Amino acid sequence: MSFLYIFDHSVYNIFSMENKYLDLIRGNIPSHIIAIVEKIENKGFSVYVVGGAIRDLLLERVPFEFDLATSARPDDIIDIFEHVNTVGKAFGTIQVYFEGTAVDVTTFRKDGDYSDFRHPNQVQFTNQIDADLARRDFTINAMAYHPIRDELVDQFNGFQHLKERRLEVIGSPMERFQEDTLRPFRCFRFMSQLGFIVSSDILSSLKELSNSVELPSMPRIKHEMGRLLFGNYWLSALNLMHQSEWLSKIIPDYPIHETIDLPHEALYRWAWLFSKCSLAEIAAKFQFSKTDISSMKEIIEWNYNESAINFTIDQLNISSEQLIALGFKGKDLGNIQKTLQRLIREEKLLNYTRDIMNYLDTLRG
């Protein structure tokens, strides 16, 4: 295998990677993203596809979104595109509406100190993609690809870490996690989704910070935890959260299992995670709706049995008209339907008309 390395601020010519990986990027950048890149480049600015999209393409996953980083300033982007949203302008981000899609375009920047554990105190724009990538959290999220010049920027060895299935922080884990206290939750979430191992310095930093760091807002925690619970390695991630004492920071008591068979539905997994707490109290803390809390209560009551939980009165193999003909009217009709539903859910009665009729015969003597 031949390699051609062209180093310029850690910019790889794309041929420096194995073709099987290159092809995962090439041809998978959507046409509207390339069109946006061309419009910005035609104005004399540089622009790259950055972050999670490159990571996901190299992992043969479908990216959730494609973000762009550019040397153009926010006002330049506003001038170039007709339809934009400027709500993130203070942090360098302009949302561009192009060909029916919203795309975040963010100016290359350096971040200052973080005093609120979420946002930098000041944002300094820069013309260098290297500096922009250096402010990111994990090396696998700090790659950038130029779809016109066919270049990959990977100054922190993110591609190598992807191949090694290893999660590494850019710089000091302690400093990165203290800057934005959502990053430990992102770390656990990536472990759940990707099944990556983490370095020893990340593990020690997580443990050390667990008792001292200020938590991010509950909506941000809930968002990351929701994504964690859907990962293929969610139980392993929860166990690491338990061992590093981060899970106990947000949930007072919880089950710990190496394996458990649950439906791939959000409320089932949240219900299981909350099952050793006061459900109403902990679910309200996580800002779940009353409807969701009621659903989780039912899920726990029926021991996560999806077929039982989803079985409704409408599915009874005996109609209301048949029950009325048998003498069940008014409240008695509703009560017998609930009784039949419960017995079938408990697998004490089969949902066949003959079995239901036989059961009703026993009630009438």
Terminus-to-terminus distance = 84 Å
CATH topology of the domain at 1-164: Beta Polymerase, domain 2
| Molecular shape | elongated
Strand content: 5-15%
Taking all residues together, what is the mean pLDDT? 89
Structural class estimated from helices and strands: alpha+beta
Radius of gyration: 27 Å
- The first-level CATH class of the domain at 1-164 is given as Alpha Beta
Query: Could you describe the largest sheet, including whether it forms a barrel?
Result: 8 strands, mixed
- For the largest beta sheet, what order do the strands appear in spatially? 1-10-9-2-3-6-5-4
Looking at CATH, the homologous superfamily of the domain at 1-164 is: Beta Polymerase, domain 2
- Low confidence ranges: 1-16
Q: Count up the helices.
A: 19
How does CATH name the architecture of the domain at 1-164?
2-Layer Sandwich
Q: How many strand units?
A: 12
Percent range for helical residues?
40-55%
Task: Describe this protein's structure.
There is one protein chain. Among the domains are: 1-164, Beta Polymerase, domain 2 (2-Layer Sandwich); 312-363, no CATH class. It is built from 19 helices and twelve strands. Strands 1-10-9-2-3-6-5-4 form an eight-stranded mixed beta sheet. A two-stranded antiparallel sheet has the order 7-8. The model is unreliable at 1-16 (pLDDT under 50). It starts with 10 loop residues before the first strand and ends with a helix. The longest helix has 15 residues, at 331-345. It has 365 residues and is an alpha+beta fold. It is elongated, with a radius of gyration of 27 Å.
